[in-house]
Protein backbone atom coordinates (compact mmCIF):
# COMPACT_ATOMS: atom_id res chain seq x y z
CA UNK A 1 0.00 0.00 0.00
CA UNK A 2 2.79 2.44 0.90
CA UNK A 3 4.65 1.80 -2.38
CA UNK A 4 1.45 2.30 -4.37
CA UNK A 5 0.72 5.55 -2.53
CA UNK A 6 4.25 6.83 -3.31
CA UNK A 7 3.78 6.12 -7.02
CA UNK A 8 0.38 7.86 -7.03
CA UNK A 9 1.81 10.94 -5.29
CA UNK A 10 4.55 11.14 -7.97
CA UNK A 11 1.97 10.74 -10.75
CA UNK A 12 -0.25 13.39 -9.12
CA UNK A 13 2.68 15.81 -8.99
CA UNK A 14 3.41 15.31 -12.68
CA UNK A 15 -0.26 15.66 -13.65
CA UNK A 16 -0.78 18.74 -11.49
CA UNK A 17 2.01 20.43 -13.43
CA UNK A 18 -0.09 20.04 -16.58
CA UNK A 19 -2.72 22.77 -16.86
CA UNK A 20 -6.33 22.21 -17.92
CA UNK A 21 -6.51 18.45 -17.58
CA UNK A 22 -9.32 17.51 -19.98
CA UNK A 23 -9.61 13.74 -19.80
CA UNK A 24 -9.93 11.29 -16.86
CA UNK A 25 -6.71 9.97 -15.36
CA UNK A 26 -6.26 6.25 -14.82
CA UNK A 27 -4.35 7.10 -11.64
CA UNK A 28 -5.91 8.46 -8.42
CA UNK A 29 -5.66 12.25 -8.13
CA UNK A 30 -5.94 14.63 -5.19
CA UNK A 31 -9.65 15.23 -4.52
CA UNK A 32 -10.00 18.80 -5.82
CA UNK A 33 -7.93 18.05 -8.92
CA UNK A 34 -9.95 14.90 -9.63
CA UNK A 35 -13.34 16.62 -9.28
CA UNK A 36 -12.26 19.71 -11.24
CA UNK A 37 -11.08 17.34 -13.96
CA UNK A 38 -14.39 15.47 -13.89
CA UNK A 39 -16.45 18.70 -13.93
CA UNK A 40 -14.46 20.20 -16.79
CA UNK A 41 -14.71 17.00 -18.83
CA UNK A 42 -18.49 16.72 -18.30
CA UNK A 43 -19.27 20.37 -19.00
CA UNK A 44 -17.05 20.57 -22.09
CA UNK A 45 -18.74 17.50 -23.58
CA UNK A 46 -22.16 19.00 -22.82
CA UNK A 47 -21.26 22.25 -24.56
CA UNK A 48 -20.24 20.22 -27.60
CA UNK A 49 -23.51 18.26 -27.72
CA UNK A 50 -25.01 18.93 -31.15
CA UNK A 51 -28.48 19.23 -29.57
CA UNK A 52 -27.38 22.04 -27.24
CA UNK A 53 -29.04 25.38 -27.83
CA UNK A 54 -27.15 28.66 -27.46
CA UNK A 55 -26.68 28.08 -23.73
CA UNK A 56 -26.93 24.71 -22.00
CA UNK A 57 -29.00 24.81 -18.81
CA UNK A 58 -28.29 22.08 -16.26
CA UNK A 59 -29.61 20.78 -12.97
CA UNK A 60 -27.44 18.76 -10.63
CA UNK A 61 -28.79 15.74 -8.78
CA UNK A 62 -26.73 15.27 -5.56
CA UNK A 63 -24.04 12.60 -5.93
CA UNK A 64 -24.95 9.50 -3.90
CA UNK A 65 -22.75 7.09 -2.00
CA UNK A 66 -22.93 3.94 -4.11
CA UNK A 67 -22.49 1.66 -1.09
CA UNK A 68 -25.17 3.06 1.22
CA UNK A 69 -27.36 5.11 -1.13
CA UNK A 70 -26.91 8.13 1.15
CA UNK A 71 -25.99 11.73 0.38
CA UNK A 72 -22.85 12.50 2.36
CA UNK A 73 -20.85 15.63 3.12
CA UNK A 74 -18.35 15.02 0.33
CA UNK A 75 -21.33 15.12 -2.07
CA UNK A 76 -21.77 18.78 -1.15
CA UNK A 77 -18.07 19.45 -1.83
CA UNK A 78 -18.42 17.85 -5.27
CA UNK A 79 -21.50 19.99 -5.99
CA UNK A 80 -19.63 23.18 -5.12
CA UNK A 81 -16.67 22.34 -7.37
CA UNK A 82 -19.02 21.59 -10.28
CA UNK A 83 -20.96 24.83 -9.66
CA UNK A 84 -17.73 26.84 -9.55
CA UNK A 85 -16.46 25.26 -12.77
CA UNK A 86 -19.80 25.87 -14.53
CA UNK A 87 -19.72 29.51 -13.45
CA UNK A 88 -16.27 29.96 -15.04
CA UNK A 89 -17.59 28.43 -18.26
CA UNK A 90 -20.72 30.62 -18.01
CA UNK A 91 -23.02 27.59 -18.00
CA UNK A 92 -26.27 28.06 -16.00
CA UNK A 93 -26.57 25.33 -13.38
CA UNK A 94 -28.61 24.77 -10.21
CA UNK A 95 -29.50 21.99 -7.82
CA UNK A 96 -32.43 19.87 -8.95
CA UNK A 97 -35.88 21.11 -7.85
CA UNK A 98 -39.25 20.67 -9.59
CA UNK A 99 -39.04 24.17 -11.12
CA UNK A 100 -35.36 23.91 -12.10
CA UNK A 101 -35.98 20.52 -13.69
CA UNK A 102 -38.77 21.94 -15.87
CA UNK A 103 -36.55 24.79 -17.04
CA UNK A 104 -33.42 22.76 -17.84
CA UNK A 105 -32.09 20.81 -20.80
CA UNK A 106 -29.76 18.49 -18.93
CA UNK A 107 -29.30 16.74 -15.60
CA UNK A 108 -25.94 15.77 -14.09
CA UNK A 109 -26.01 12.70 -11.85
CA UNK A 110 -23.24 10.73 -10.25
CA UNK A 111 -21.97 8.38 -7.56
CA UNK A 112 -19.10 8.07 -5.10
CA UNK A 113 -17.92 4.48 -4.91
CA UNK A 114 -15.33 3.00 -2.53
CA UNK A 115 -14.13 0.13 -4.66
CA UNK A 116 -11.20 -2.02 -5.78
CA UNK A 117 -8.40 -0.38 -7.73
CA UNK A 118 -5.33 -2.00 -9.23
CA UNK A 119 -2.68 -1.23 -11.80
CA UNK A 120 -1.33 -4.53 -13.06
CA UNK A 121 2.14 -3.35 -14.03
CA UNK A 122 2.67 -1.63 -10.67
CA UNK A 123 1.42 -4.16 -8.16
CA UNK A 124 -0.55 -7.38 -8.12
CA UNK A 125 -2.26 -6.28 -4.93
CA UNK A 126 -5.68 -4.67 -5.17
CA UNK A 127 -6.36 -1.66 -2.96
CA UNK A 128 -9.58 0.28 -2.35
CA UNK A 129 -9.92 3.89 -3.46
CA UNK A 130 -12.82 6.26 -4.05
CA UNK A 131 -14.03 6.52 -7.62
CA UNK A 132 -16.39 9.32 -8.67
CA UNK A 133 -18.43 8.59 -11.80
CA UNK A 134 -20.97 10.85 -13.47
CA UNK A 135 -23.05 11.36 -16.59
CA UNK A 136 -25.06 14.16 -18.18
CA UNK A 137 -28.49 13.24 -19.54
CA UNK A 138 -30.39 15.16 -22.21
CA UNK A 139 -33.79 15.55 -20.54
CA UNK A 140 -35.66 15.59 -23.84
CA UNK A 141 -34.15 12.45 -25.38
CA UNK A 142 -33.04 10.53 -22.28
CA UNK A 143 -29.66 10.00 -23.90
CA UNK A 144 -26.31 10.45 -22.17
CA UNK A 145 -24.35 13.28 -23.80
CA UNK A 146 -21.37 13.31 -21.43
CA UNK A 147 -19.68 10.86 -19.10
CA UNK A 148 -16.61 10.97 -16.92
CA UNK A 149 -14.97 9.28 -13.95
CA UNK A 150 -11.92 9.83 -11.79
CA UNK A 151 -10.15 7.98 -9.02
CA UNK A 152 -9.47 9.97 -5.85
CA UNK A 153 -6.18 9.69 -3.99
CA UNK A 154 -7.53 10.87 -0.62
CA UNK A 155 -8.83 8.14 1.69
CA UNK A 156 -10.20 10.51 4.35
CA UNK A 157 -13.16 11.98 2.45
CA UNK A 158 -15.96 13.16 4.74
CA UNK A 159 -18.60 10.45 4.50
CA UNK A 160 -20.75 11.84 7.30
CA UNK A 161 -24.35 11.59 6.07
CA UNK A 162 -26.17 14.88 5.58
CA UNK A 163 -28.84 15.65 8.20
CA UNK A 164 -31.75 13.90 6.48
CA UNK A 165 -29.80 10.67 5.97
CA UNK A 166 -28.14 10.88 9.38
CA UNK A 167 -31.59 10.94 11.02
CA UNK A 168 -33.03 8.22 8.81
CA UNK A 169 -33.82 4.94 10.63
CA UNK A 170 -33.04 2.87 7.55
CA UNK A 171 -30.49 2.53 4.76
CA UNK A 172 -32.52 3.38 1.68
CA UNK A 173 -30.57 1.73 -1.11
CA UNK A 174 -33.25 0.58 -3.55
CA UNK A 175 -33.92 0.02 -7.26
CA UNK A 176 -33.61 3.76 -7.96
CA UNK A 177 -30.12 3.89 -6.44
CA UNK A 178 -29.10 0.80 -8.42
CA UNK A 179 -30.46 2.52 -11.53
CA UNK A 180 -28.51 5.70 -10.70
CA UNK A 181 -25.31 3.64 -10.31
CA UNK A 182 -25.96 2.02 -13.67
CA UNK A 183 -26.61 5.40 -15.34
CA UNK A 184 -23.50 7.03 -13.84
CA UNK A 185 -21.34 4.28 -15.37
CA UNK A 186 -22.88 4.38 -18.85
CA UNK A 187 -21.26 6.00 -21.86
CA UNK A 188 -22.13 8.75 -24.30
CA UNK A 189 -24.92 7.81 -26.70
CA UNK A 190 -26.53 5.28 -24.38
CA UNK A 191 -29.97 5.79 -22.87
CA UNK A 192 -30.11 6.54 -19.16
CA UNK A 193 -31.49 3.66 -17.16
CA UNK A 194 -35.27 3.97 -17.35
CA UNK A 195 -35.90 3.54 -13.59
CA UNK A 196 -33.70 6.56 -12.83
CA UNK A 197 -34.88 8.63 -15.81
CA UNK A 198 -38.57 8.00 -15.10
CA UNK A 199 -38.13 8.95 -11.42
CA UNK A 200 -36.62 12.40 -12.01
CA UNK A 201 -39.86 14.29 -11.25
CA UNK A 202 -40.30 12.69 -7.84
CA UNK A 203 -36.54 12.87 -7.26
CA UNK A 204 -36.72 16.65 -7.67
CA UNK A 205 -39.51 16.78 -5.07
CA UNK A 206 -37.58 14.64 -2.59
CA UNK A 207 -34.33 16.59 -2.98
CA UNK A 208 -36.26 19.81 -2.28
CA UNK A 209 -37.88 18.24 0.80
CA UNK A 210 -34.53 16.94 2.06
CA UNK A 211 -32.97 20.38 1.58
CA UNK A 212 -35.77 21.96 3.62
CA UNK A 213 -35.20 19.31 6.30
CA UNK A 214 -31.47 20.07 6.41
CA UNK A 215 -32.34 23.76 6.81
CA UNK A 216 -34.68 22.81 9.70
CA UNK A 217 -37.70 24.03 7.77
CA UNK A 218 -39.67 20.99 8.94
CA UNK A 219 -43.17 22.27 8.17
CA UNK A 220 -42.29 22.91 4.53
CA UNK A 221 -40.41 19.60 4.29
CA UNK A 222 -43.44 17.76 5.64
CA UNK A 223 -45.72 19.35 3.01
CA UNK A 224 -43.42 18.23 0.20
CA UNK A 225 -42.99 14.69 1.57
CA UNK A 226 -46.79 14.45 1.79
CA UNK A 227 -47.05 15.65 -1.81
CA UNK A 228 -44.57 12.96 -2.88
CA UNK A 229 -46.53 10.28 -0.98
CA UNK A 230 -49.64 11.15 -3.01
CA UNK A 231 -47.89 10.22 -6.26
CA UNK A 232 -47.91 6.62 -7.47
CA UNK A 233 -44.14 6.88 -8.10
CA UNK A 234 -43.56 8.60 -4.76
CA UNK A 235 -44.43 5.70 -2.47
CA UNK A 236 -40.79 4.87 -1.84
CA UNK A 237 -38.65 4.43 1.26
CA UNK A 238 -37.23 7.97 1.14
CA UNK A 239 -40.73 9.45 1.18
CA UNK A 240 -41.86 7.48 4.22
CA UNK A 241 -38.52 8.02 5.97
CA UNK A 242 -39.06 11.74 5.36
CA UNK A 243 -42.59 11.62 6.77
CA UNK A 244 -41.26 9.77 9.82
CA UNK A 245 -38.36 12.17 10.41
CA UNK A 246 -40.31 15.41 9.92
CA UNK A 247 -43.26 14.28 12.04
CA UNK A 248 -40.82 13.25 14.75
CA UNK A 249 -39.16 16.68 14.63
CA UNK A 250 -42.59 18.33 14.85
CA UNK A 251 -43.55 16.03 17.76
CA UNK A 252 -46.40 14.40 15.81
CA UNK A 253 -45.88 11.02 17.48
CA UNK A 254 -48.84 9.16 15.99
CA UNK A 255 -48.10 10.36 12.44
CA UNK A 256 -44.41 9.45 12.89
CA UNK A 257 -45.30 5.89 13.96
CA UNK A 258 -47.70 5.51 11.03
CA UNK A 259 -44.97 6.62 8.65
CA UNK A 260 -42.51 4.20 10.23
CA UNK A 261 -44.95 1.33 9.65
CA UNK A 262 -45.28 2.37 5.99
CA UNK A 263 -41.49 2.55 5.76
CA UNK A 264 -41.13 -1.02 7.05
CA UNK A 265 -43.80 -2.30 4.68
CA UNK A 266 -42.25 -0.53 1.69
CA UNK A 267 -38.76 -1.82 2.53
CA UNK A 268 -40.02 -5.41 2.71
CA UNK A 269 -41.94 -4.97 -0.54
CA UNK A 270 -38.94 -3.39 -2.31
CA UNK A 271 -36.05 -5.43 -0.87
CA UNK A 272 -37.58 -8.29 1.14
CA UNK A 273 -35.49 -6.96 4.01
CA UNK A 274 -35.21 -4.32 6.73
CA UNK A 275 -31.78 -2.71 6.82
CA UNK A 276 -32.48 -0.65 9.94
CA UNK A 277 -29.62 1.33 11.50
CA UNK A 278 -29.02 -0.84 14.52
CA UNK A 279 -25.25 -0.32 14.74
CA UNK A 280 -22.81 -1.95 17.14
CA UNK A 281 -19.65 -0.95 18.95
CA UNK A 282 -16.41 -2.39 17.59
CA UNK A 283 -15.87 -5.99 18.80
CA UNK A 284 -19.10 -5.87 20.79
CA UNK A 285 -22.73 -7.00 20.89
CA UNK A 286 -23.71 -3.66 22.43
CA UNK A 287 -25.22 -0.88 20.37
CA UNK A 288 -22.99 2.13 19.65
CA UNK A 289 -22.83 4.71 22.42
CA UNK A 290 -25.04 7.37 20.84
CA UNK A 291 -27.73 8.77 23.16
CA UNK A 292 -30.00 9.90 20.33
CA UNK A 293 -29.79 6.53 18.58
CA UNK A 294 -30.40 4.65 21.83
CA UNK A 295 -33.63 6.60 22.29
CA UNK A 296 -34.59 5.93 18.67
CA UNK A 297 -33.79 2.22 19.05
CA UNK A 298 -36.48 1.84 21.70
CA UNK A 299 -39.12 3.14 19.30
CA UNK A 300 -37.76 1.19 16.32
CA UNK A 301 -37.76 -2.10 18.25
CA UNK A 302 -41.36 -1.46 19.31
CA UNK A 303 -42.47 -0.69 15.77
CA UNK A 304 -40.66 -3.68 14.25
CA UNK A 305 -42.29 -5.95 16.83
CA UNK A 306 -45.70 -4.45 16.01
CA UNK A 307 -45.11 -4.96 12.29
CA UNK A 308 -44.23 -8.65 12.64
CA UNK A 309 -46.96 -9.26 15.21
CA UNK A 310 -49.45 -7.84 12.68
CA UNK A 311 -48.00 -9.84 9.77
CA UNK A 312 -47.45 -13.60 9.72
CA UNK A 313 -44.01 -13.40 8.17
CA UNK A 314 -40.86 -15.32 9.03
CA UNK A 315 -37.40 -13.82 8.89
CA UNK A 316 -33.69 -14.28 9.32
CA UNK A 317 -31.78 -11.90 11.60
CA UNK A 318 -28.41 -11.55 9.92
CA UNK A 319 -25.47 -10.18 11.89
CA UNK A 320 -22.55 -8.43 10.18
CA UNK A 321 -19.10 -7.22 11.22
CA UNK A 322 -16.46 -4.85 9.90
CA UNK A 323 -13.41 -6.16 8.09
CA UNK A 324 -10.82 -6.34 10.85
CA UNK A 325 -9.57 -9.54 12.46
CA UNK A 326 -9.87 -13.04 11.01
CA UNK A 327 -12.93 -14.48 9.30
CA UNK A 328 -13.71 -17.10 11.96
CA UNK A 329 -13.73 -14.56 14.80
CA UNK A 330 -15.94 -12.15 12.88
CA UNK A 331 -18.42 -14.84 11.92
CA UNK A 332 -18.84 -15.74 15.61
CA UNK A 333 -19.13 -12.07 16.59
CA UNK A 334 -21.77 -11.39 13.93
CA UNK A 335 -23.81 -14.42 15.08
CA UNK A 336 -23.67 -13.15 18.68
CA UNK A 337 -24.97 -9.78 17.45
CA UNK A 338 -27.86 -11.47 15.64
CA UNK A 339 -28.80 -13.48 18.73
CA UNK A 340 -28.52 -10.43 21.01
CA UNK A 341 -30.83 -8.52 18.69
CA UNK A 342 -33.28 -11.44 18.49
CA UNK A 343 -33.58 -11.41 22.27
CA UNK A 344 -34.61 -7.74 22.22
CA UNK A 345 -37.61 -8.26 19.91
CA UNK A 346 -40.94 -8.79 21.62
CA UNK A 347 -42.48 -10.83 18.79
CA UNK A 348 -44.98 -13.66 19.27
CA UNK A 349 -43.40 -17.11 18.73
CA UNK A 350 -40.17 -15.42 17.74
CA UNK A 351 -38.04 -18.58 17.98
CA UNK A 352 -40.41 -20.38 15.60
CA UNK A 353 -40.57 -17.45 13.18
CA UNK A 354 -36.94 -16.27 13.11
CA UNK A 355 -33.42 -17.61 12.83
CA UNK A 356 -30.19 -15.86 13.82
CA UNK A 357 -27.32 -16.03 11.32
CA UNK A 358 -23.80 -14.59 11.26
CA UNK A 359 -22.19 -13.46 8.01
CA UNK A 360 -18.99 -11.95 9.37
CA UNK A 361 -17.61 -9.47 6.88
CA UNK A 362 -18.48 -11.31 3.64
CA UNK A 363 -21.38 -8.93 2.86
CA UNK A 364 -19.71 -5.67 3.91
CA UNK A 365 -21.31 -2.53 2.52
CA UNK A 366 -18.10 -0.47 2.78
CA UNK A 367 -15.35 -2.92 3.69
CA UNK A 368 -12.74 -0.33 4.64
CA UNK A 369 -11.86 -2.04 7.93
CA UNK A 370 -11.29 1.35 9.52
CA UNK A 371 -13.52 0.62 12.55
CA UNK A 372 -14.89 4.17 12.63
CA UNK A 373 -17.86 6.12 11.27
CA UNK A 374 -16.91 5.29 7.69
CA UNK A 375 -17.65 1.58 8.08
CA UNK A 376 -20.23 1.75 10.89
CA UNK A 377 -22.82 0.27 8.52
CA UNK A 378 -20.72 -2.92 8.38
CA UNK A 379 -21.36 -3.53 12.11
CA UNK A 380 -25.10 -4.05 11.86
CA UNK A 381 -27.95 -6.53 11.84
CA UNK A 382 -30.31 -6.98 8.93
CA UNK A 383 -33.79 -8.54 8.92
CA UNK A 384 -34.47 -10.63 5.82
CA UNK A 385 -38.03 -11.88 5.23
CA UNK A 386 -38.03 -15.54 4.13
CA UNK A 387 -40.33 -18.48 3.51
CA UNK A 388 -41.24 -20.03 6.87
CA UNK A 389 -39.89 -23.37 5.63
CA UNK A 390 -36.39 -21.87 5.88
CA UNK A 391 -36.62 -21.34 9.66
Notes on the protein architecture:
- By secondary structure, the protein is an alpha/beta fold.
- It folds into 3 domains: 2-158 and 173-191, no CATH class; 199-271, Serine Threonine Protein Phosphatase 5, Tetratricopeptide repeat (Alpha Horseshoe), CATH 1.25.40; 278-391, OmpA-like domain (60s Ribosomal Protein L30, Chain: A).
- It is 45% helix and 15% strand.
- It contains 14 helices and 10 strands.
- It has helices at 2-16, 31-47, 73-88, 98-102, 163-167, 175-184, 194-198, 200-214, 218-229, 237-249, 253-271, 291-310, 327-344, 350-353; strands at residues 58-60, 64-65, 93-95, 106-117, 127-138, 144-152, 273-274, 314-319, 354-358, 381-386.
- Strands 1, 2, 3, 4, 5 and 6 form a 6-stranded mixed beta sheet that branches.
- Strand 5 (127-138) and strand 6 form a beta hairpin.
- Helix 8 (200-214) runs antiparallel to helix 9 (218-229), helix 9 (218-229) runs antiparallel to helix 10 (237-249) and helix 11 (253-271) crosses helix 12 (291-310).
- The longest helix has 20 residues, at 291-310.
Amino acid sequence: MYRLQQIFILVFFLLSCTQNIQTPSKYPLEFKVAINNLANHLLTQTQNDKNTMESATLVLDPFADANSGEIVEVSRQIEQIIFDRAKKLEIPIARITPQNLRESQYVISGIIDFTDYSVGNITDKTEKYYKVSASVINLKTGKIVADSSNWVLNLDLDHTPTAFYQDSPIYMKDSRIESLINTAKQGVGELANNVYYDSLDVQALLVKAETDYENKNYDQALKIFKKASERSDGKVMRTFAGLYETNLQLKNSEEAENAFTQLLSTSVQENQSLNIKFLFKVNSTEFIDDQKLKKDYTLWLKMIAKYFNDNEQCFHIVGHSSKTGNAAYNKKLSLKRAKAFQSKLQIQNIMQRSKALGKGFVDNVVGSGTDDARDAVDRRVEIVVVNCELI
